[in-house]
Structure to design on (247 residues):
């Protein structure tokens, strides 16, 4: 697919996230205060929610990437916000998705101020992730087929995860079929499937000041790769159902 739509009328996105993993010259206990100071300047009504953190010594936490990059606080303003930990900040946008043209400037603005403040000593990785909910059997609407012992899976509850290299990026795709989940503020769970796409870039070889110059290009490249992969996964008839809009 060469021509990509600028947006789709029937949006499937339930959450979008841009994550940046880093090391800082500041002590771990100071990171939240620094980020909050910058974020609240632009969004004074933003609400802070502490996240549950297991009581694990810092040296053990830093040795495990699943713990080192775990957020400790969540700042939220309407349908978007920020997750913050001693070594991570992630920007999120919830359903209804505000759109890339509105969300990307928020990411750029806050990141530039954090770089200028000197929060980052090194940057380990960026990741742009989109989680999409489909209200039907995922295998009926995508170009994905799974067979086990010559039996093609159709409506079975199935989770498929794969990752592969694309130049400087790693593409991580997870597909979950026949699941039940709560979406937005709906108190009743809905059944369907997930298409979860995460485009990651290792940045340990890039200087922080170079990242400041390159961040917009990295964001745009990551975004284009997520869109291309998403629409390539969909069958044409289902893609047309979503009412893509081209500009």
């Amino acid at each position: 697919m060469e021509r990509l739509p600028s947006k789709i009328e029937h949006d499937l996105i339930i959450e979008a996230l841009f994550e940046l993993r880093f090391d800082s010259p500041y002590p771990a206990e100071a990171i939240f205060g620094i980020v909050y100071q910058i974020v609240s300047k632009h969004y004074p009504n933003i609400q802070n929610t502490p996240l549950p953190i297991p009581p694990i010594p810092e040296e053990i936490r830093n040795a495990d990437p699943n713990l080192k990059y775990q957020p400790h606080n969540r700042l939220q303003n309407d349908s978007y916000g920020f997750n913050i930990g001693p070594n991570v900040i992630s920007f999120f946008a919830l359903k209804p998705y505000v759109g890339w043209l509105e969300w990307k400037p928020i990411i750029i603005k806050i990141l530039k101020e954090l770089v200028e403040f000197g929060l980052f000593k090194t940057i380990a990785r960026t990741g742009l992730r989109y989680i999409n909910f489909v209200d039907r059997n995922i295998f009926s609407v995508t170009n994905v087929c799974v067979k086990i012992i010559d039996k093609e899976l159709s409506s079975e509850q199935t989770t498929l995860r794969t990752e592969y290299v694309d130049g400087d990026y790693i593409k991580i795709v997870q597909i979950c079929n026949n699941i039940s989940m709560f979406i937005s503020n709906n108190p009743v769970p809905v059944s369907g499937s997930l298409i979860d796409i995460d485009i990651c870039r290792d940045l340990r070889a890039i200087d922080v000041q170079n990242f400041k110059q390159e961040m917009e290009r990295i964001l745009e490249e990551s975004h284009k790769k997520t869109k291309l992969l998403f629409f390539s996964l969909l069958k044409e008839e289902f893609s047309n159902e979503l009412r893509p809009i081209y500009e």
Notes: Residues 19 and 139 are 29 Å apart (CA to CA). The helical segments are 28-42, 58-63, 65-68, 100-117, 208-233, 236-241.
